[in-house]
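Extended Data, record 5'-nucleotidase domain-containing protein 4
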Amino acid sequence: MPNFSVNVPQLSSLYSTKTPKVRMNLCADQVFDKMLLWRDMSTKMKFPSFSAAELPDLRKSNKRRGSLRMIKCRAAGADGGRVAVGDDVFSVTTSSKYEVDYLGQSTKGDLNLKLDPLQSFGDGQATLEGPIEEVARTEAQAAENLIRELGIQGPFSAQHSPRGIFCSRTLNLRSISAIGYDMDYTLMHYNVMAWEGKAYDYCMENLKSMGFPVDGLAFDPELVIRGLMIDKEKGNLVKADRFGYVKRAMHGTKMLSNKAVSEIYGRELVDLRNQSRWEFLNTFFSVSEALAYAQMVDRLDDGFISADLGTLDYKGLYKAVAKALFRAHVEGQLKSEIMSKPELFVEPDPELPLALLDQKEAGKKLLLITNSDYHYTDKMMKHSFNKFLPNDMDWRDLFDMVIVSARKPEFFQMSHPLYEVVTGEGLMRPCFKAETGGLYSGGSAQMIESSLNVHGDEILYVGDHIYTDVSVSKVHLRWRTALICRELEEEYMALIGSRGHREELIELINQKEVVGDLFNQLRLALQRRSKGRPAQTLAATNLDDQELTETMQKLLIVMQRLDDKIGLMLETDGELFNKRWGFLSRAGLWDKSHLMRQIEKYADIYTSRVSNFLNYTPFMYFRSQEQSLAHDSPLPDAGIEN
């Protein structure tokens, strides 16, 4: 590998700007990760190299202050002229020599210094000596400033944005050898109104041919969101919290009151294992199905469905809708129309191919594993990728292996016959072993692991379907997982827009709690007084009867008015995202939705689109955040009394 050489000024002496200490560690990681990326790119691109004589001019042009002492690397010339960044300085931890770090992550893929860490640094040695806390504080601050000078987006600015990558379980990308991608709604993002609207139209045509009344119905994606569940026994769509308690429900297309929800679901939990009753809306593909079902429930309740179709209950109605939509997908008319005019259905993302290119050049083996057939995959990938790739690359050049018609989730659980696609027309022949660079149909995940000699947590799989992509690959194979949830961008902005509303709501709830606590204490005092017993305190015991009663009356009026206000505000909470269902990730003011619980359980990281990886590096170390607990409230300054 050719050396990428650049004189590196001593970080601690370059900058004096004060920055918040809390942001330092990740910024140092980001600088190091960018250096790794630059090193790997040096085989294809030339970067400028600055000599020691040129550095004062560089410093002056950038208005830098302080001395510019050089880091002298023994392996690249001790005269201070250049510092080599390459195989003579660093070694990569292999899969046979990895260890496990303090967060339980594999160190495979980490760089190590071949040289003595201190002896290799000449004049800079002094700054690396001393307590590590002081060294880290100085160098991390300098690293953050260097990020700013280089114009690199820091990890904090990327994370705290609608297009951040959010971490549920710590993930070291350096230890990942292969990254697999789903295609539909992962590498390929469709215009929901166009794609699902067209799927809905075909579904309605099929329902009409079956004898169902569909006249006057129209596609309205605002009626449903991802993460809802269809209750096939009762004809309802419901939204549950992380424990499975139903928080909102809709019968047909009519929202149910809180009282009705409590009466129907107050004594039961949503259990997704009961597939005969519950259908989880995992992905955007579920939108057209759920909408058509809700509208047909209305027609059934209104008596518009002909008796000629037989006796239909809500479960039988769901089977009819699912069959009509399945026909729309299987018969090929839907995909044929999309292939003829892909620009009407696909939202282009110029950054996406570049994100995958970074990963490939960093040594990751890239896989495409999709349930779509070869002709559809090739047509849509060419449309979405080729025009954004450099040097006349084809989308196939990005991937070490492509699997079409994969039949997920069975692909992750069992083995199917493997066929190699051998012509541009899609002709196939039986195959017994997959090879790097091949294009195949069918097969299994175990076959991929064997062919590429990568296994388990060395593979990251990225998809949009909680079950088909993320849950099954993690549970059965222990692959690392990433979920694509495009709605995150809209929800992120809706949460920001709702901040004032939620702050006011929380303030009212806190006031209700204070008023309610006093009311409850007075009620207890009144109860004890009626039984001839003293109240909690002497002052409460001596309280005048009339004063006690009037105070309780006043407090009760205040609480009732607060309840009316809070109830109305809770109903409108989240309406910036969806007026009926509220936020995607939340159920009520305080709790997470059932969908969010699934994401946290099965997806190590999640984000809105694959191109968000471009804001990070292929060497990023994603660290999960501290999880709050009910007893995490700040303790008082004084000692705790026993």
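Summary. The first helix runs from residue 11 to 14.
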